[in-house]
Amino acid sequence: MKHLVLLGGGYGGMRLMKRLLNASDLPSDVQITLIDKNPYHCLKTEYYALAAGTISDHHIRVPFPEHPQLHIKYGEITGMNLETKEIHLLDEEPISFDELVIGLGCEDKYHNVPGAAEFTHSIQSIDNSRDTYQTLNNLPHNGVVSVVGAGLSGVELASELHESRPDLKIKLFDRGPIILNGFKPRLSNYVQNWFIQRGVEVINNSNITRVEEGILYNHDTAIPSDAIVWTAGIQPNKLVRDLDVEKDPQGRVILANYHHLPENEHVFVVGDCASMPFSPSAQLAEEQAEHIAKVLLCRWKDEPMPKLDEIKLKGVMGSLGKKSGFGTMGSASLIGRVPRLLKSGILWLYKYQN
Questions:
Q1: pLDDT tens string 248-276
Q2: Residues 243, 251: contact at Cβ < 8 Å?
Q3: Does 2-37+75-107+234-300 carry CATH code 2.60.120.260?
């Protein structure tokens, strides 16, 4: 019996299960165990909308697959021993593995800003997003919400919150000279002007120096806030950060060509914890999973390792509320209604296929 253990049912884990369990050549002696603390797959790309209150919880839950060769274990992972090939769970017996795929996702990165972890809200997990929604939903008229970080998550959260609670005063803090500075100027200008035209205050060239309860300090200037949401960076899950393996400057695990550890071909890393020449994304995790599925099937059948295609991402789509959006497709920048419709279609297709 060959035992594959998947840590985390995120985008990479879901795609890997789909490819393996639907494969006509999956060996009958392979057993797959998924370990996750949630009893369903969560659409993390939509956490911003859950926190803003424009969708309900059940809209971002997808059931895990069912298959005779799949066992799902719900629990909290406390550690990984790669030498003894064991996964340790809270108040449970260890689970052994022959092959391991680590897809534990990411956490907020606070960049050593004093008070940020204690006094800000998060949208990095479904539990965090639920708590953030409760706080934002209960704010009074004219309450001040400070969103720290104007990357994709911050932009989508601020725009969705504006539509959900137009009575709130929203401040969006961005370290760059303009929102989404890494994109083409046409797209960045469109997004920045979208907020300005709707009365959302954009604070460019910001530098958050510390956070206290109800107060955000930008360049040491105190800004009273009824709620502060942190979307200013991510880092790999702490379990991965604690692993004694080679990592890049961002703390992500450096991998060999087949997405496994250079020193251990039986341990793969997928998603936000993997060091890749792309920014972390659901799309990247799924592309990695496609590769890993091919590698595992060849290995289990004692066939030569496959030739893997180069990973090419299709683009990025972001929303500005329910009627507008932005994105990139190849070298083209998209703004307005079309990218918003494309994003909605991609989400619908993903849920339908899973």
A1: 999 999 999 999 999 999 999 999 999 99
A2: no
A3: no
